[in-house]
Design goal:
single chain, alpha+beta, seven-stranded antiparallel sheet, 7 strands, globular
Length: 173
């Protein structure tokens, strides 16, 4: 049996869904990364005021070094996903002209393949879900999986609608 990947989480600010959203997001990442067979995965939160993406949750060997790290929102493949709301896959990341090796340089890792899926709410892209280093590379099925999780994260991010009569927010009457 393989050992679970290390997990680190530190949200720079509370999503509208609050502590419950943060807990659900942090709990969803490890099984998703394991299911993909990726070496690492992260959720980077958009800080529009600073123009940054911030590693809020990370799973994998570099998790502790990544959490809290800031990158310009317009850098690299992850920045493209955030800026244009379009998913990105590169199975030859170092050779990709849009790849930014800055994170690798900061934490001493090597990205060979990368998947990035924007997390979009009605207010726009709020985060980017990423996974790296799946062998032999990421597939269309992996992208579909990432997009499903990104949609779920967006739902948790916003929290239940006011006066919702869902199990998470029962009718007070």
């Amino acid at each position: 049996m393989t050992e679970p990947l290390p997990v680190a989480a530190e949200f720079p600010f509370d999503p509208p869904g609050g502590a419950e959203a943060k807990a659900r997001i942090a709990a969803a990442l490890p099984p998703w990364v394991a299911e993909l067979g990726a070496a690492e995965g992260s959720l980077l939160v958009c800080d529009d005021r600073a123009g940054d993406l911030i590693f809020a949750v990370s799973v994998g060997p570099s998790a502790r070094e990544l959490v809290g790290l800031r990158r310009p929102i317009d850098d690299g493949l992850v920045g493209l996903a955030a800026s244009f709301g379009q998913p990105q896959i590169s199975n030859t990341a170092p050779a990709d002209p849009d790849f930014d090796p800055g994170v690798d340089e900061q934490v001493g890792s090597t990205t060979r393949s990368l998947l990035a899926a924007p997390v979009a709410t009605p207010q726009g892209v709020v985060a980017v879900l990423t996974a790296i280093n799946r062998q032999p590379g990421f597939t269309a099925d992996d992208l579909a999986s990432a997009q499903r999780l990104a949609q779920q994260i967006a739902h948790w991010w916003d929290g239940p609608p006011p006066h919702s009569h869902s199990p998470e927010n029962p009718d007070p009457a």
